[in-house]
Design brief:
two-stranded antiparallel sheet, globular, 185 residues, two-stranded antiparallel ribbon, alpha+beta, 4 strands, 46% helix, 7 helices
């Protein structure tokens, strides 16, 4: 389904960046990392017209997750750039990725970095359960069954509600921009 090749370098740096920005978030663990990655990639696809990483997101039982996450995370750990801490949060086991090296954010444009920062800031107050309550009502999550790929284009219908006039105007303008740039026929 995915047409572009995943950028594992960008995925790795994004993982490190999210981990470093979440070091003081007691709710930050594997599930929250997955949900932040999903939100960042899908929102940038919807807002900027491209995913940051082109990762393939799979619907798991509790969380959307990049199919490539384990390999990229393991690479970061083997390079000594990240580690996994185990502990507990609200009485449940928690695996927490910790950045041991600074991420290379030069791979991302200023606009992409600003969007990532905004999303991390907005999502920080949510724990994994609250995050699930939100993500599991969104069309991207609902469009797939367990272990199935979640198509990026489902971001354009985030909620099963009629679109506002402003949203329709934005969509028409965005389609026109994509056609003019040659990204769409």
């Amino acid at each position: 389904m995915q047409s572009q090749k995943i950028d594992t370098a960008k995925l790795g740096e994004l993982i490190l960046y999210i981990a470093s920005k979440s070091q003081d978030d007691p709710a930050f663990g594997t599930a929250k990392l997955n949900k932040i990655l999903f939100t960042v990639d899908f929102f940038t696809y919807g807002i900027l017209g491209h995913s940051l990483t082109n990762a393939t997101y799979i619907r798991l039982e509790y969380s959307p997750s990049p199919r490539e996450l384990n390999d990229v995370r393991d690479q970061l750990i083997s390079e000594g750039r990240a580690a996994v801490q185990t502990g507990s949060y609200i009485g449940k086991p928690q695996k927490r990725l910790v950045a041991l090296a600074a991420p290379d954010m030069s791979l991302f444009s200023a606009e992409e970095r600003a969007l990532v920062d905004d999303l991390i800031h907005e999502l920080k107050p949510l724990n994994a359960t609250q995050f699930s309550t939100w993500t599991h009502t969104l069309s991207p999550w609902l469009s797939a069954t367990d272990y199935e790929e979640i198509p990026y284009n489902t971001v354009f219908v985030m909620k099963n509600e009629p679109a506002s006039r402003e949203a329709m105007i934005w969509a028409i303008n965005r389609l026109e921009e994509l056609r003019e740039s040659g990204e769409l026929p």
